[in-house]
């Protein structure tokens, strides 16, 4: 179950990050890039949990 939650959170963070990168404010763009990277990391964590059977 943790796998699915991490993947969903990752997708949400990635989508919000991509939207922020379309801003005209450079600070918001940088924040968006960081949030997108966080989302990708969460998705990876979910995949690892899935492979190890949520024992992580």
Automatic annotation (TrEMBL):
SUPFAM superfamilies: Hypothetical protein YjbJ. It comes from the Bacteria. Residues 29-46 have a biased composition (Low complexity). InterPro entries: YjbJ_sf (IPR036629). Residues 17-56 are annotated as: Disordered. This is CsbD family protein. It comes from Sphingomonas spermidinifaciens.
């Amino acid at each position: 179950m943790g796998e699915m939650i991490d993947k969903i959170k990752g997708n949400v963070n990635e989508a919000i990050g991509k939207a922020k990168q379309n801003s005209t404010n450079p600070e918001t763009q940088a924040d968006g890039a960081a949030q997108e990277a966080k989302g990708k990391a969460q998705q990876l964590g979910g995949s690892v949990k899935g492979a190890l059977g949520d024992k992580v």
